[in-house]
């Protein structure tokens, strides 16, 4: 693997975690890798089979959707009858979005996981923002753990997988996955993330492909007469302007970039690439995108954004939302329950969400699309018996909602980390810390909608999902790989973001966007396009 030198890995992976966490800073022009095109790996994908038998209270009408539950099934039993290990140890490297959990010696939840596995599961992990450097250093050092998370943009990824990891096709393709029934329950689309060179290179961290939500403080809108559920761009602008009162230190929103994403979606261009007859066009090249940029600049000139909105962290924006400084915030769909938790101690707090709207009566909105797999876990090269043992551990970690394994991993041990209220496990403060071990970023089951003791939250999450999934933006790059994008995409996106922010801050005219797009094309955008078009063509007909 001479081409994959340590310098190349460190250079290429330095931005991987940032790219993987939320696409690029440009929002709606960030490339995602999900979809339902059916082009990638169709002949080798694992055969889907529903895992578990918990009957949902809310069943999605969309194959990409999550089932919803109002309570945890009583008397849960194990989904895996025999411990996957007979002593011994499995090691893993992954990432996390949460604070560091207490170590195994101080964590009875982790100790109980080891006990039920029949051996030791040792996990080394880093914050998602720092994972690229940890990954690069580990791979370049050559001493790999059994399991490694492939997260974010990685240069020369196909070559790296072939050099260091196990081709899992013979173990998981088609009906072979039936040996691991919980893995068989992961969505077909999520497996496409693991396909390179018509081979399976890992187990996906499956997700519903809804990346974000525009949340609104419904309690702060109530009684104002403002359109809390805007139906077009006029009502959306009226809402933002009406919520802003600088004299009271209140601005409608803290994130101009995400507002631009929402307006672009109203114009039907939330996807990063558009494919027509095998030809690819980036959304940033469209006149409609420049129109969305002009509308967002108009809102910026009207003062609806927090003065520090362009430079604030997500944590700052979330704090502004919770304390009412900015009644609108954009955040990850998966974090719905966190917003409810943060607002629990705020008098009168009521969380609402803004639906996607058409720009005008003639427009059909789309919803920005996320990935059906946040990452995937690769298995380091090993003898077949060892590979099967490792896969059995992953299958245990993928035990579905309703099982005793799921209850342990997510809520812990009754009496120590949670107590039952009815059949719902209500986690205590100690449990909130102990359960932060990132088992789910090594491997996890199909996600579900479940908020213990909060039927209203589960219903709201489900309703949003059912409205969003039918209008998800298309993504023709799903399952395709561009080396130029992996190597230069983040820097190219940063350059565009800098230009965009200059426009929104009033430092440059909207007309300067055309020059930025030309620079993007000449700097690598056209090459990325060509690579995707070639990969799309080679993938064959749908």
Automatic annotation (TrEMBL):
The keyword Plastid does not apply. Residues 1-30 form the signal peptide. It comes from the Bacteria. SUPFAM superfamilies: Periplasmic binding protein-like II. Keywords: Signal. This is Putative aldouronate transport system substrate-binding protein. It comes from Kribbella caucasensis. The lineage of its organism: Bacteria, Bacillati, Actinomycetota, Actinomycetes, Propionibacteriales.
């Amino acid at each position: 693997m001479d081409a994959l030198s340590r310098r190349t890995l460190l250079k290429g992976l330095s931005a991987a975690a940032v790219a993987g966490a939320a696409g690029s800073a440009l929002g709606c022009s960030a490339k995602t890798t999900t979809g339902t095109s059916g082009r990638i790996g169709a002949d080798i994908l694992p055969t889907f089979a529903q895992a578990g038998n918990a009957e949902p209270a809310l069943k999605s009408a969309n194959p990409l959707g999550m089932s919803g539950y109002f309570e945890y099934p009583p008397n849960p039993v194990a989904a895996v009858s025999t411990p996957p290990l007979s002593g011994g140890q499995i090691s893993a490297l992954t990432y996390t979005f949460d604070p560091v959990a207490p170590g195994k010696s101080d964590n009875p939840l982790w100790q109980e996981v080891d006990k039920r596995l029949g051996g030791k599961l040792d996990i080394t992990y880093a914050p998602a923002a720092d994972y690229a450097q940890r990954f690069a250093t580990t791979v370049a050092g050559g001493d790999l753990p059994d399991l490694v998370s492939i997260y974010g943009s990685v240069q020369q990824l196909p070559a790296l997988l072939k050099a260091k990891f196990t081709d899992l096709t013979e173990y998981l393709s088609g009906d072979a996955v039936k040996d691991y029934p919980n893995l068989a329950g992961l969505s077909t689309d999520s497996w496409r993330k693991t396909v390179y060179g018509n081979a399976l290179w890992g187990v996906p961290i499956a997700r519903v492909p809804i990346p974000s939500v525009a949340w609104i403080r419904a309690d702060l809108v109530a009684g104002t007469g403002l359109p809390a559920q805007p139906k077009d761009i006029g009502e959306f602008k009226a809402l933002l302007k009406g919520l802003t009162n600088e004299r009271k230190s209140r601005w409608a929103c803290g994130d101009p970039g995400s507002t631009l994403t929402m307006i672009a979606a109203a114009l039907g261009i939330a996807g990063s690439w558009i494919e027509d007859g095998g030809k690819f066009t980036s959304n940033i090249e469209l006149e409609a995108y420049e129109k969305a940029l002009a509308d967002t600049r108009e809102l910026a000139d009207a003062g609806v954004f927090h003065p520090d909105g362009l430079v604030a962290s997500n944590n700052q924006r979330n704090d502004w939302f919770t304390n009412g400084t900015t009644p609108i915030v954009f955040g990850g769909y998966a974090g719905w329950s966190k917003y409810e938790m943060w607002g629990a101690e705020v008098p009168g707090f009521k969380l609402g969400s803004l639906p996607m709207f058409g720009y005008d009566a003639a427009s059909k909105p789309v919803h920005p699309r996320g990935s059906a797999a946040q990452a995937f876990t690769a298995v380091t090269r090993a003898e077949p018996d060892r590979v099967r043992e490792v896969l059995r551990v992953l299958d245990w970690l993928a035990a579905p909602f309703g099982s005793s394994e799921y209850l342990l991993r997510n809520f812990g041990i009754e009496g120590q980390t949670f107590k039952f209220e009815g059949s719902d496990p209500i986690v205590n403060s100690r449990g909130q810390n102990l359960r932060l071990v990132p088992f789910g970023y090594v491997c996890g089951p199909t996600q579900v909608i479940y908020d213990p003791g909060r039927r209203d939250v589960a219903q709201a999450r489900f309703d949003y999902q059912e409205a969003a999934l039918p209008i998800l933006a298309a993504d023709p790059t799903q399952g395709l790989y561009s080396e130029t994008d992996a190597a230069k995409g983040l820097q190219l996106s940063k350059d565009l973001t800098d230009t965009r922010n200059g426009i929104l801050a009033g430092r440059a005219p909207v007309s300067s966007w055309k020059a930025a797009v030309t620079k993007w094309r000449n700097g690598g955008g056209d090459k990325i396009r060509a690579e995707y078009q070639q990969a799309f063509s080679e993938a064959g007909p749908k």
